[in-house]
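Listing 4. Sequential folding, example run.
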Amino acid sequence: MHQRLLFILLFLPHLLNAQTLHVAPTDSAVHLDGLLTEGIWQRAAVATGFIQNFPNDTAPAYNDTQVRMTFDATHLYVSVVCFDKNPEKRFIASSLKRDFEWDQNDNFTVYLDPFGDRINGFTFNVTPYGVEREGQMFNGERVASEWDNKWRSAVKVLPDRWQAEMAIPFKSFRYRKGAAWFLMNFARHDLKNNQRSNWRRVPIAYRPSALAFADTVRFSRPLPDPGPNVSLIPYVSSRYSDDLGDPGDLGGKRTFKQGIGFDAKIGVTPSLNLDLTVNPDFSNVEADQQVTNLSRFEIFYPERRQFFIENQDLFASFGFEQNRPFFSRRIGISYDTTTSVIVQNPLLYGARLSGKIGKDWRVGLLNTQTASQPDKGITGQNYTMAVLQRQIFGRSNISAILVNRQGIGALPDSMRYTRLAGLEYKLQTDDNRWSGKLFYTRAFRAAQPGEARNGVDIDQDAYTHGATLSYTSRNLTLTWTHEYVGQQYKINDVGFVNRRGFWRVLPELETTFYVPGNRKLISHGPFTDLMLIRNKDGRLTDREWNVGYNLQFRSTAEGGLGYYAYYTYLFFPYDPTNSDGRELPEGSGFATRGCFGYFNTDKRKLLNASVEGYAGGYFNGQNTSFTAQLQYRFQPYGALSVYSEYNNIRLPEPYKSAQYLLVGPRLDVTFSRKLFWSTTVQVNSQTDNTLLNTRLQWRYAPVSDLFVVYQENYFPGSLTSKNRALVLKLSYWFNV
């Protein structure tokens, strides 16, 4: 009773102030200078009284934040005043580069849900250094920061506060025609005081971006129709490459290529967008972070190409992370029959239609075509994916998908295809406590050579299904996952499945105890998970049990320790070092156990570090594995970091032991908010390769860039060059 009364007394001022924010139009121009001297800012309603999301979601924010809004015929304007009781402490900034990491920077964020579905939206962020970030929101709280669009901001730092003005064109985001209200929330990441706060309270168990807790913002008159929304982004590029071959080769192969192409964004309706790309060039995309490969199965690398990242919740979120019916990185990868090497194949065009149709329906249609190269035995491939999604039961939705890969051309395999059809139900309750999904996907493909059916349907087991259900509360997260993948579910020319013919179940439990009165500790608690994998005959092939304890400190440091007990049954011969050593025999089983741990230091410090590792059993031997990253920020102009991974695998004779070292120093320099330079070196002893990648980016106009990229691969010992490439790419964003 006393606790309930205390809660009411604490929140009574906020409950009395919890009124809809009303936004009036401006009667004069808003000059973006961060000074907030315009009369409209003096008259505008104020969104204030921010409540902590972390570390104590029952307390007001330590630093006050005030937000005001207005609009005119073309823009939505947001101003914010972020008061600062500790100006002697420096702001935390990773760099001046656009699209910063949210949790590594002091910043203010606008969360915008124009359709009121509490699932999809947009976000716009700004730091005290004037660095901008924007993103598309999906799944109710997730943010894809790779989404780019035009908008402007200005920041002013004063002795007791920092303040900003943001001008967001109505053409930059989608909303229903004649909209008179949005769902919105505002967040402030006061990292130097290790606090996250929201205008409308978001419980500590959820991210500040959770749209389930957004509130209504009403406009005094319907927002204007943004009108025709057509953007054209042409590019020109030049690429020089030199393939030197192995040492002792008589000569390499030098090529020089020039390219021209464009992207286009067309607003078909205020809520439906058409994206086009013709002869796209992805040479400016950063290289993948290498890893030491100790897996028996294919390793998953995320998509980095801009065209395929936008609207990823429609096209890339079906299934599970290791069981995806559509994986866009398959597009543009082909097998060169003349060299027996996997090579990149040019993408001729791509088209993507996505967005809202009506109140509860979303649609997505993606089509791409790759080139035919008969001299290399490469058949052009057409990839199509169609999605239709219906919102039901509040924030949940049900989706139908179709995927088709079809060979195009005159080569013998041009008529081969892979097709998939599936249904998925995604659960999200209004209070965010329950979430999950249920899916079924079936594959259809043309018979391959040697797969004459002869009365046997090769596709009889070509399906997968799975489900996950998660309950999240202040102190408890409980998740159940299971899936089945058929033996004939062969989709790795369009999707990603790292193994087939198995059942998997995975229960997970994590408990968190918060200690508000403790000056050192924020929270602590145990966790455990158990994964069981059985083949179709019911035989246990994998068992992984982890149990441990997490600690989270007020300094932003965190750590944990745990114990593991694994069992692995080999259904094919395998060398645990992945180095062509003697293989363990098929049919053998191995029970192992050991310990693991991790620790991350205070990320607010200029010098910070993170380390994790395990030591214990590994198949029929032992492995000691550590990964570590050390970073020094010379903020706000960048950082120097070193990533390293070490594995010491010790197997009994006659099996091979191995020591692998992967070292990756990286230098990021942001000379200004428009000029960025990054250099990465990755030395990998397992692949006997050293990679150098250096990239200069000049954003000379909004969303318009000049890239200069140089990449070279070396033999680690002698540093003899294997191959090198230099790329120049220039793009410009036109609003038509």
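-- end of first protein; second protein begins --
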Amino acid sequence: MDARVPEPAAVSEPAPIPESVPVLIAGGGPVGLATAVELAHHGVRSLVVEPRETVSWLRPRAKTTSARSMELLRRWGLAETVRARAPLAVSWSDQALFVNSLLGREITRIGGCFGLDLAGSDLAAEPGQQVPQPLVEEVLREAAGDALLTGWQVTGLREDADGVTAGIVSASGEEREVRAQYVVGCDGPRSVTRAAIGARYEGRQDARPNFNIVFRAPGLAERMPHGPAVHYWVLNPAQPGIVGRLDLKETWWCIAMGVRADDADPVGLIRNLVGADVEVEILATDPWSARMLLADRYASERVFLAGDAAHQNPPFGGHGFNTGVGDAVNIGWKLAAVLHGWAPTSLLASYEAERRPIAADTIEAAAANMATLAPELADPALMGDAAEFERVRPAVAEAVLRTKDSEFHSLDLVLGYTYEGSPIVAPGAGERLPHRWLGPGDSLYDRLGPGFSLVGDQREPGAAVLVAQARELGVPLRAVDLPGEPLTLVRPDQHVAWRGTDPGDALRVAVGTT
């Protein structure tokens, strides 16, 4: 699949704009769309207001969908679609190579990157996937269906005790108002929703400039001496950066580090990174600086922030939109529980309590990854003759492995984050339910219900207690019988709410009624 040419979308008549909707979502990037898909997973209607009519492939931004996000896509029935359309199969490579130029000498390599090697592992129901963000957006757009309203933008919000009135405007200047019970702001760094609730970013911006380029380079792939890799880190002091493939044809991306837009010569930058005067066609450029920003609050009574509206982190480690997908699932199931009447509105307060610390940890981890980049690892001797190169290569390789391992091996953050200490989680619980395969292709996660699940030996006395609680509260609860195993109460987002023998009020705590 050529990364420049998306598959044509089916043309259909736009649905009429509703006057009211249970949930309005400001912004239809991957996080806003994920929120809509999560709500639909629980039978809740939403309206996603997004100014872009189509998804552009010229600035692919995120390229790594984490193992955790792929598990959530599997939960929605979309993981296979993403993998089938991805230009790079997950089996193609899990390597990051460090070189003195793309066509030059290899310094070292790191394998098992980004959870791409997890296929068949008990650690996860899905491995990670290298895939351009626009493709993920297109799959989510299809899943969102007529919940997506393109060509319109949220311009303001008025919140009252009974709901929120959103002002929206079309590209032609037409103005409307839509009434919603709740609003989720997924409208990015310049968020209207963040301003509407009086929240503000706290943090800093990195001073170092970066320059992204998407380009075509016919014949370059055939000249590559190092084999497949998802990242090629070029440690050339004169032009350090990262290069990667967007497809298995001729489309590539690169990050030229330390380059300001005013000084950029895109063709020259690419040739320096490649190490040869290759034929190049520039498709898009995008100057940027990394930001470490976290909203001081995530919510009012009826408006919630998710994704870049709530947090921004450096891209190193591939955590950006993946953290936002986690936001979407967390607020999505909780809004559904409240709207369906089996949880009180107080449940919604747990969204910020659970997700803001995860974003803070992610920002810290990504900033640590950014502390050592290609410019810091480059050594002028790497560009010398073979003897000079070999003299410094072991020391540079050691520095690479010491400083970059956590960037490529971050499953403790991706799969291991926990909501321990949350007001709706029992002591000692909160982690993602440990995954395992029950048989070939039979994931434990596939047995879970869309609501709560009770996993373990259903003959245990505590099982009857939780079933009775669920019936009393009207909470959807699916029993997953695993004879001989202890009981575990699993939330809709696959995180553990309680485990043990005596549940007490575990389910009431988990839905916020105590």
